[in-house]
Amino acid sequence: MAVRYALPFLLLCLFSGPAVCADLLRALWGQEELAGAPLDRLQGRTHAPDDTPPERTGPNLVLPPRDGAEAVRRVALPPGVRLAALTFDLCELADRRAGYDAELANLLRRERIPATFFAGGRWLQSHPEQALQLMADPLFELGNHGWTHGNMAVLDADGRREQLLWTQAQYELLREELTRRARAAGLPESAVAAPGALTAFRPPYGRCTPASLAGTAALGLRTVTWDVVADEMNPDAEAAARDLAARVRPGSIVLLHANGVPPHTARIVELALPLLRARGFSFVTVEKLLDAGRAETSAECFFNRPGDNLFLDRAYGDGTRHPKKTD
Ligand SMILES: [Zn+2]
User: Fold this and answer.
1) What is the 3-state secondary structure (H, E, C) of the chain?
2) Most buried by CB count within 10 Å: which residue of 22, 99, 210, 324?
3) pTM for the full model?
4) What is the pLDDT of residues 16-32, one digit of tens each?
5) What integer pLDDT is reported at residue 288 of this predicted model?
6) Domain that includes residue 134, residue range
7) Is the residue at 213 inside a domain?
8) Domain total for the chain?
9) How many Å lie between the centroid of ligand 1 and the Cα of residue 187?
10) Residue 160 domain-assigned?
11) How many angstroms does the Cα of residue 92 sit away from the middle of ligand 1?
């Protein structure tokens, strides 16, 4: 924690009331700590797979089962409402530490763009400080992206359950840490606005089956995919931004990444934002988008067309390991 910020913050809090007191993020981290560094985006080297569970293998807060097991792809909005949700996956497999795209988070904060981050449990565990910052930021919401990026169409029921619940548990541990830090800074527990449990799940590889969808709903999580896949690997960021901006529709959910693996994401988003704003779009989290309309769902999970991600079952097996074992 940035102790040097705590005292001025507390004084400000005393004299300014709850709006300022609620700014947990700025109370706990200084500007430089939040800004991170370009090197944060680098991945580690491949290592022996680590399949150990988090400190707690089940969350204390268990959600009630959800009705309806289909995957949300987009949201039908009332006429004239031009909202879209940018979503960023934070994937981490069992055999390599992923990165954190600080540049992207800085851009979203600077431009005041709400966003949803679907975080792998292992990513949360290996990036606790960045995870806490995302959780403390009222602009952002987090979702579950599986413990070690397991493919829900390949894993058995126990494996799927571990992917979901271990991530729920890791989130809960971090939320407890955030609450401890808020208290230590003299803030009330209500300053922690992050919910007690993650309520949305983004299936790794965009793979699901009727059984995995039902199992996810039974654990109280709503499966959320996307209707727009950004062309993040395109080295021509301007072309990728134009293409992205042209394909977003009112109610769209856009798939992007914040784990530093696609190299151009921040630049593509930076270039796409003015184009989308010129088309009248503003941005909300997935939860807010769902509140604004009616979910359009699918019994299948896919990138752009049903079946277009089936090949990943063969390429990645259960999905928790990189197919190449050396860098
Ligand atoms: Zn992923």
Assistant:
1) CCHHHHHHHHHHHHHHCHHHHCCHHHHHCCHHHHHCCHHHHCCCCCCCCCCCCCCCCCCCCCCCCCCCCCEEEEEECCCCCCEEEEEEEECCCCCCCCCCCHHHHHHHHHCCCCEEEEECHHHHHHCHHHHHHHHHCCCEEEEECCCCCCCCCCCCHHHHHHHHHHHHHHHHHHHHHHHHHHHHCCCCHHHCCCCCCCCEECCHHHCCCHHHHHHHHHCCCEEECCCEECCCCCCCHHHHHHHHHHHCCCCCEEEEECCCCCCCHHHHHHHHHHHHHHCCCEECCHHHHHHHCEEEEECCCCCCCCCCCCHHHHHHCCCCCCCCCCC
2) 99
3) 0.93
4) 444 444 489 999 999 99
5) 98
6) 63-316
7) yes
8) 1
9) 35
10) yes
11) 7
